[in-house]
Write a sequence for this structure.
């Protein structure tokens, strides 16, 4: 095969895992090319809160006299009593536990700085292990400014270090294929990449690291684990970072296996979440885009932040309430994803709409107009509830909502406010009638976040095929890796570093 | 009470009239009159000034009527409105009224329904102070419900409710705070010092575990 470029290690994706892999591979003497499909680095990590979950007794834990050890990390994250721990591959958890402290030091050595305040998390960790990175100091280079997206500080520093150490980062280069020697047990040879309309073949003499950020944006892929997740469910991190399962698909096309798929539907954590920012397509819990975001023209609205779900009701695509709005757990989400009567679309629950009135707007001090809401399918207003139903028009709203049905839904809810009892869904103390015009409908459909399953790897992050055999030279880290369902940056950084190191040390 | 399952699909004409009802006091005093606001909007946005709207009771009798005003409600596109004076039942209960657009050509008008809580005339005052359970800090913005009676604490954590004699469940609501419901019997003026426990909201990136 004729190669346009040649290097030791190709890293696919310039997020937390990919950048850690790139730096680590350079540290071990490998030439590195990173290919990133986006116009800038960072992936999901750029938009994250920068909460780095590494314990084991790292330098900052010691400073705060937090007693921890790799053994305790292992025990916590394999605890059979916990939904976020019991489905993990314990060999991967052991590798993670042992590499936490060195990885934390690795970050410090590469210029990453932390806010010196330990964070206790309500997950499997039994001691505080999270420290938050400082947000990147150049506001124009923070994709979601003014939203405490401290992960920008992590990935900008790692990218800076990677480039300084000689790694080449090719932006707007989309991986389209992983090339593998077709002989049985053959190793990976390189990647095909598309950039500016051209196909580029990049040889990887030692290895390829898949760090493409997971799959939750790929409707067909995610439905392998949960058929309910049809197209109406948006992916958090868009429109900046697309989790398209590119790495997974390319690897599976050359025989790779998935792993620990049970983690994806364990109903623990933010794999599926209730949005907090309504009236905009990609409002997530902690993330929305302010008007000075460089990608605001794509986001189109900041959304209205709901601090109290007493202020609105939530209706399904038929205009009916389906659960207590004050619940944010998986019972709520399961109800939202339940079948709501559309016989033409049995899977998925369809759009969910927050319905509220002018009094709610006044109490919450909302501004129900652009740029706070997106009237192009994600927000509507009208003088009456009946009229409002007819104005809810959205690509995922397959049937119009009946005005009479929505009117009766609101009437019924208002009767619960009068009586003080929600006899349909036990919403505690329903407080406010939805009565004062004008009325509003805001997109409030559950949004997807964590990829908690992916490719099978060993403890060196080497990808295994469907027969459990190593695909020589192929690695995976980050949200595309299966087997360790810890939310966030910690596992991405650890296994990215492991992958880069191991790949660099392979014979070419 | 109608449920969604029995509602027929919309029969929409180009000029369907729909209604909104707001400003309903809670509670309404039994046997007294109360004011509500009624608005009507044509799907075409045509002017409805001077058209008639009516309120009927559970038996279908017209208990209030009036004519829509000359100009739309500020902040709306074309909601013509009026204030109606409605008599409340003598019984303390929750009850429904229907509101309808009663113009001669009202064939395509969607009726509205309003639910009210009727209570005996308040005779007593319940003075409430709410603090956070551990810090003792005054909690403003606490919604207090005592049956149909309600109030909201001020910045000093204080509120006064005018309530009728009787037995109720006292309920408190404030985001990220919790307090158990408690039974209360009112037979005179009372003062209560209450507390709510601050339940820290999970960090948005935190996880549910079970």
């Amino acid at each position: 095969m004729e190669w346009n470029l040649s290097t030791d290690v190709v890293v696919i994706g310039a997020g937390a895992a990919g950048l850690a892999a790139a730096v680590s591979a350079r540290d071990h003497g490998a030439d590195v090319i990173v290919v990133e499909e986006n116009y800038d680095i960072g992936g999901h990590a750029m938009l994250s809160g920068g909460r780095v979950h590494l314990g084991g007794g790292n330098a900052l834990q010691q400073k705060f006299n937090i007693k921890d050890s790799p053994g305790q990390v292992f025990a916590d994250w394999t605890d059979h009593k916990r939904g976020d721990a019991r489905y993990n591959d314990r060999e991967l958890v052991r590798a993670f536990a042992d590499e936490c402290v060195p990885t934390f030091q690795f970050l410090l050595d590469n210029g990453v700085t932390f806010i010196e305040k330990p964070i206790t998390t309500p997950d499997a960790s039994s001691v505080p292990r999270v420290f938050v990175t400082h947000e990147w100091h150049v506001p124009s280079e923070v994709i979601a400014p003014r939203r405490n997206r401290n992960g920008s500080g992590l990935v900008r520093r790692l990218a800076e270090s990677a480039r300084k150490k000689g790694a080449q980062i090719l932006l707007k280069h989309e991986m389209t294929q992983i090339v593998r020697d077709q002989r049985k047990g053959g190793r990976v040879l390189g990647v095909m990449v598309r950039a500016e309309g051209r196909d580029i073949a990049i040889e990887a003499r030692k290895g390829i690291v898949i760090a493409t950020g997971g799959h939750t944006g790929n409707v067909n892929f995610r439905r392998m684990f949960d058929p309910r997740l049809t197209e109406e469910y948006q992916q958090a991190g868009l429109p900046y970072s697309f989790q398209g399962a590119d790495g997974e698909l390319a690897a599976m096309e050359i025989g790779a296996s998935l792993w620990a798929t049970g983690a994806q539907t364990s109903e623990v954590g933010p794999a599926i979440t209730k949005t907090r920012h309504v009236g905009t397509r990609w409002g997530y819990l902690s993330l929305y885009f302010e008007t000075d975001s460089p990608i605001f023209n794509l986001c189109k609205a900041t959304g209205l932040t709901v601090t109290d779900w007493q202020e609105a009701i939530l209706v399904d695509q038929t205009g009916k309430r389906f659960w207590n709005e004050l619940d944010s757990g998986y019972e709520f989400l399961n109800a939202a994803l339940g079948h709501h009567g559309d016989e033409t679309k049995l899977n998925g629950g369809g759009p969910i709409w927050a319905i509220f009135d002018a009094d709610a707007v006044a109490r919450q001090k909302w501004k129900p107009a652009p740029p706070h809401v997106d009237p192009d399918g994600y927000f509507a207003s009208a003088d009456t509830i009946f009229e409002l139903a007819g104005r809810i028009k959205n690509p995922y709203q397959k049937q119009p909502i009946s005005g009479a049905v929505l009117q009766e839904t609101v009437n019924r809810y208002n009767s619960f406010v009068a009586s003080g009892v929600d006899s349909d869904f036990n919403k505690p103390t329903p407080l406010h009638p939805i009565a004062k015009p004008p009325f509003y409908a805001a997109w409030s459909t559950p949004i997807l976040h964590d990829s908690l399953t992916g490719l099978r790897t060993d403890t060196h992050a080497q990808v295994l095929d469907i027969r459990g055999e190593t695909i020589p030279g192929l690695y995976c880290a980050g949200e595309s890796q299966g087997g360790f369902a810890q939310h966030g940056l910690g596992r991405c950084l650890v296994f990215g570093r492991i992958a880069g190191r191991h790949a660099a040390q392979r014979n070419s | 009470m109608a449920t969604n399952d029995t509602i027929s699909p919309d029969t929409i004409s180009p000029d369907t009239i729909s209604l909104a009802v707001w400003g309903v006091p809670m509670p309404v005093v039994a046997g007294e009159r109360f004011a509500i606001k009624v608005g009507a909007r044509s799907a075409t946005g045509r002017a409805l000034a001077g058209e008639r709207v009516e309120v009927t009771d559970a038996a279908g009798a017209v208990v209030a009527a009036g004519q829509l005003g000359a100009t739309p409600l500020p902040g709306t596109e074309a909601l013509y409105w009026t204030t109606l004076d409605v008599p409340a039942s003598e019984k303390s209960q929750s009850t429904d009224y229907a509101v309808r657009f009663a113009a001669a050509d009202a064939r395509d008008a969607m009726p509205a329904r309003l639910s009210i809580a009727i209570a005996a005339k308040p005779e007593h005052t319940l003075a409430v102070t709410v603090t956070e359970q551990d810090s003792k800090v005054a909690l403003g913005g606490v919604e207090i419900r005592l049956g149909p009676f309600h109030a909201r604490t001020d910045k000093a954590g204080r509120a006064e409710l005018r309530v009728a004699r009787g037995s109720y469940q006292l309920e408190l609501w404030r985001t990220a705070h919790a307090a158990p419901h408690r039974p209360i019997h009112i037979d005179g003026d009372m003062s209560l010092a209450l507390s709510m426990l601050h339940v820290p909201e999970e960090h948005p990136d935190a996880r549910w575990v079970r």
